[in-house]
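Students often ask why we bother encoding 3D structure as a string. The short answer is that it lets us treat folding as translation between two languages. Here is a chain of 171 residues written in the first language.
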Amino acid sequence: MEHRSTPDLEERLAAVWASFGEYDGGREAEFRAVVDELVAELPDDHPVVAFERACAFDSTGYSDKAVPLCQEALARGLDGYRARRTKIQPVGSLHNTGRAEEGVALLTPELDAPSDELDDAVRAVLALCLAGLGREREGLSLVLGALARHLPRYQRSMKNYARELVEPEGS
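And here it is in the second language, the structure alphabet:
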């Protein structure tokens, strides 16, 4: 079951995120307070509360505080588009803190998830973790495969190169 907030709250959250740039220059705590105030309208155990707080912390330079909130949002049953974002978001932080294997475990199933606008982000962040684990060819294959569909030409070639990086020769 998708956990939803009210359309009005969703619009206000979207407006706050659209104004994020206005909170630069030392006003990041104020931004997080505005997000906290909005999500306080939901029950404390609502997964969107942890999700939005995680996003606010991550976006203001506190990945260490965002990762546990992402995990909490997923544990509370966050699903759909937000759940996919919640899986992508902490993986860079996991990579940076020497926990790349956790990032790979979290994102690998997303390669088989229904396609959406986050597909390339999944592949890019997963590639970063793979590189951190010494699996650069696999990571490069993911990135080339993601890039291929955006090229005006050479799409087939790039897809083939991406495949050849991870398939044994002659298979």
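Translate back mentally: The chain has two domains: 1-89, 91-171. Keep this in mind for the problem set.
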